[in-house]
């Protein structure tokens, strides 16, 4: 059975991810796969250090406890949901990316999942979102019962994000708000450069028409979804965040991945959303 994968470590952030994922699994008719990842190896800062076996056992036990607690949380949200649990040893991001290849999505919180309990070694969620070839949801906040918000532009990955956003709006029985920004300057700045208000209105209307055409093909596949278009001369991440507020159920954004484990693999808009959004963010790849 298809399943949504959740990385858990006993943190509040991971618990929030479990709650979101359990609800999403019910909506999508799939199971839930909970995994606790632990790493008892030493870092490059302490080469040759031998970790006592009792410490290794304690770390493994903590991972198992976290998974069992997460399963109880998931059952509270969805008592009849099929749930599988496991623990795995290794680098958290790499393990989750490997296990995520056989799942419909990966869901993560924004903290935790470091190599040693209580030690934050970097953003696993950002790394997974950057390198996964599937859907990744980073639960940056609880969200509300409002719309699904998608950021769109004229790139190919935008079509992938639009399709996923329509699907999410349909399964969540809510409207879709499509946000497009046509200039990274605000209106006052444009006026200051001698751009007349009627010219701003003309460009904005052209953008509205272009977005309507881009959405039309997807709307035909989800006729039940009500679509609202927001076109503003604003920096993309700010426009999306302002539109979503704290009421949106989900923000959907596309990401252009290049593969590998080096370099910047998330665009600036995706990065800002993952760090600033008060609602869950779903990253899809082209």
UniProtKB/TrEMBL annotation:
Residue ranges of every copy of the UspA domain listed in the record: 3-139, 147-285
SUPFAM superfamilies: Adenine nucleotide alpha hydrolases-like (SSF52402)
Domain of life: Bacteria
GO molecular function annotation: ATP binding
Cross-referenced InterPro entries: Rossmann-like_a/b/a_fold (IPR014729), Universal_stress_UspA (IPR006015), UspA (IPR006016)
Gene3D superfamilies associated with the record: HUPs (3.40.50.620)
Nucleotide-binding is among the record's keywords: yes
Keywords: ATP-binding, Nucleotide-binding
UniProt similarity note: Belongs to the universal stress protein A family.
Matches recorded under PANTHER family: STRESS RESPONSE PROTEIN NHAX (PTHR46268), UNIVERSAL STRESS PROTEIN RV2623 (PTHR46268:SF27)
The protein's name: UspA domain-containing protein
Lineage, opening ranks: Bacteria, Bacillati, Actinomycetota, Actinomycetes, Mycobacteriales
């Amino acid at each position: 059975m298809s399943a949504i994968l959740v990385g858990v470590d006993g943190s509040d952030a991971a618990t929030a991810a479990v709650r979101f994922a359990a609800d999403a699994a019910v909506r999508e008719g799939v199971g839930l796969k909970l995994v606790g990842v632990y790493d008892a190896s030493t870092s490059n800062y302490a080469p040759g250090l031998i970790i006592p076996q009792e410490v290794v056992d304690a770390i493994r036990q903590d991972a198992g406890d976290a998974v069992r607690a997460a399963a109880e949380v998931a059952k509270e949200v969805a008592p009849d949901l099929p749930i599988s649990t496991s623990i795995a040893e290794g680098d958290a991001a790499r393990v989750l990316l490997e296990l995520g290849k056989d799942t419909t999505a990966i869901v993560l919180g924004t903290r935790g999942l470091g190599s040693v309990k209580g030690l934050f070694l970097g953003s696993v969620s950002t790394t997974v979102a950057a390198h996964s070839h599937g859907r990744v949801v980073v639960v940056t906040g609880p969200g509300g019962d409002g719309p699904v918000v998608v950021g769109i532009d004229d790139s190919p990955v935008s079509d992938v994000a639009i399709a996923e956003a329509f699907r999410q709006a349909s399964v969540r029985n809510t409207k879709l708000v499509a946000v497009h920004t046509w200039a990274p300057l605000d209106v006052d700045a444009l006026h200051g450069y001698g751009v007349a208000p009627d010219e701003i209105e003309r460009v904005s209307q052209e953008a509205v028409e272009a977005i309507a055409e881009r959405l039309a093909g997807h709307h035909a596949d989800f006729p039940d979804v009500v679509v609202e278009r927001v076109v503003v001369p604003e920096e993309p991440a700010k426009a999306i965040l302002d539109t979503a507020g704290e009421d949106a159920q989900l923000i959907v954004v596309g990401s252009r991945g290049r593969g590998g484990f080096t370099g910047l693999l998330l665009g600036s808009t995706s990065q800002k959303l993952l760090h600033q959004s008060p609602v869950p963010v779903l990253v899809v790849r082209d």
